[in-house]
Amino acid sequence: MTNNQFVVIGIGQFGEAIARSLSKKGAEVMAIDKSQEVVDYIANDVAYAVALDATDKKALISQNIQKFDAVVIAIGEDFEELLLCAVNLIELNIPRIIVRAKGKVNRKILEKLGLEEIFSPEFEVGAVVAERLLHPTMVNFLDLPDNYIITEIKAPKSIVGQSLGSIKLRESYNINLVTIKNEVVEQHGRDMVKRQHIKGVPLRDTVIEEDDSIVIFGSSKDIEKFIDINS
User: Fold this and answer.
1) Domains located in the chain, CATH noted
2) pLDDT tens digits, residue range 91-110?
């Protein structure tokens, strides 16, 4: 966890929530905003805080942005600025880009750029994005009291082909399996679309398949341990 390095560009409410959540979990965070006032506001709560124009590729390069594991573009109001920033990051071969979209039209444009991890603040919260940054296999996440969580993760390769009885989630990891979801490609009109289906209540002889996601419940510590061991 201590080696995780992330950049958050655009420190509005959404970007601030992500940056603070990541920092609290031990990640090294660089917060970038074009406003010096905003940068000063968050400077004491992140590893680095820099005022610069994210549409300026040379400015991004000057911060060694390529060395970071992922960059979150949380620019909210100016979509043209967000697009220019995204293009810069793509051209710099940033390994992982997570971007904020306001509305379906913006999302479609971002998808045309080849961006896959697109979030809408109306439906996503900073803590969820932070968890997905720290644990890329997480698909969905629900934070519960007393440090317990319910999360959906892509089935690790190490357990694919095994039965639930042999994996022993409860005995080995102190985790309960809620259900299993499977992704299939189906015909929808003229298009082929991916859909997920619930496999129902799993049994001990249920075998984990390659395209499965597992929904599990447990303490955040136990689930992080399970992900780390099987990643």
Assistant:
1) 5-134 (3.40.50.720), 138-230 (3.30.70.1450)
2) 999 999 999 888 788 889 99
* Spatial contact of 153 and 213, defined as CB atoms under 8 Å apart: yes
Residue whose pair of structure tokens reads 């040379």 in the numeric block:
58
Give how far the C-alpha of residue 96 lies from the chain's centroid of Cα atoms, to the nearest Å.
Answer: 10
Other C-beta atoms closer than 10 Å to the C-beta of 153 total 21
For residue 104, the model assigns a pLDDT of 82
DSSP line for the chain: -TT-EEEEE--SHHHHHHHHHHHHTT-EEEEEES-HHHHHHHGGGSSEEEE--TT-HHHHHHTTGGGSSEEEE---S-HHHHHHHHHHHHHTT-S-EEEE--SHHHHHHHHHTT--EEE-TTT--HHHHHHHHH-TTEEEEEEEGGGEEEEEEEPPGGGTT-BHHHH-HHHHHS-EEEEEEEEEEEEETTEEEEEEEE--S--TTPBP-TTEEEEEEEEHHHHHHHHHHH-
What residues pair up with 151 in beta bridges, in sequence order? 141, 216
How many C-beta neighbours within 10 Å does residue 53 have?
15
Q: What are phi and psi of 147, to 5 degrees?
A: 65, 30
**What does the pLDDT read at residue 183?**
76
Strand partners, 179: 215
pTM of the model: 0.61
Compute the average pLDDT of residues 30-55.
96
Amino acid making up residue 2? T
The Cα–Cα gap between 5 and 219 comes to 24
